[in-house]
Design a protein that fits this description.
Layout (H helix, E strand, L loop, with lengths): L1 E6 L1 H10 L1 E2 L4 E5 L2 H6 L5 H25 L9 E6 L5 E3 L8 E4 L3 E2 L3 E7 L4 H15 L3 H10 L4 E4 L4 H5 L1
Antiparallel strand pairs: 1-3, 1-4, 2-7, 3-6, 4-8, 5-6, 8-9
Length: about 170
Amino acid sequence: MRVYLPCTLPALARVAGAGELGPGPLTGYAVTPALIEWYVSGDTEELEYVALTEAARASLRMLAADRADGVEVAARRVVVAVDVPDGDVAAGADLEERARVRLAAAVPLARVAAVHVDEPEAVKDVEAAIAALPAADRGDDDARFTVDGAEANELLWYATQEIPDLIG
């Protein structure tokens, strides 16, 4: 099963050094039965895009948390796509998070299929989204619009052999 794991560039550097994503449990996003049922008319590619988008939203929150902890991190969302056995994936029952899954254990770097990262031109929108998150969470519609604006930027696809270039 393809699972999309939210990440940041500093976390990706740690993954490259450790040779695995972890430790478990890990929260990711995938095409789950609940997502398929909710998005009846979508094909597999559309459903995977929904899961990727959910992971990108979680990456945005990771960036905001790092910033709140005083960690200097580039404002670029990162999603790591991994292929794991179906039995390693537990889907949640929360209807609000139809694509959310849990992986109990760390994922070896060898299971990484690709990395998706914001292009540098997206930094301005991602910075604005990070700043707007607290107000968006309080229900401010303008702030939600700003957060959603980060999603207008497509994540670029990188092969696993390009990870050193991303973190270098």
